[in-house]
Inverse folding.
């Protein structure tokens, strides 16, 4: 199976509304959003059928964040910039 990256959009982001799309056939995974210091801002287990997740970060500070999808087969990461 070809490895496809996760998609995080819009990025950079000004609204705090973020769409995170998992690659096909990833299965159930844990979605974590961390600030640049490694502090967890968002954490949720996502079921196998939910490839697209929308999160709202109204109170998050502007800056750079790391989006991580993790399960027993994948550890995918992407950078997110909040303006």
């Amino acid at each position: 199976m070809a490895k496809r990256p996760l998609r995080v959009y819009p990025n950079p982001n000004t609204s705090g509304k973020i769409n995170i799309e998992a690659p096909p056939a990833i299965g159930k995974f844990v979605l974590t959003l961390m600030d640049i210091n490694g502090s967890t801002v968002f954490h949720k287990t996502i079921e196998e059928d939910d490839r697209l997740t929308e999160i709202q970060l109204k109170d998050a500070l502007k800056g750079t964040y790391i989006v991580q999808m993790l399960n027993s087969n994948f550890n995918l990461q992407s950078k997110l910039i909040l303006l």
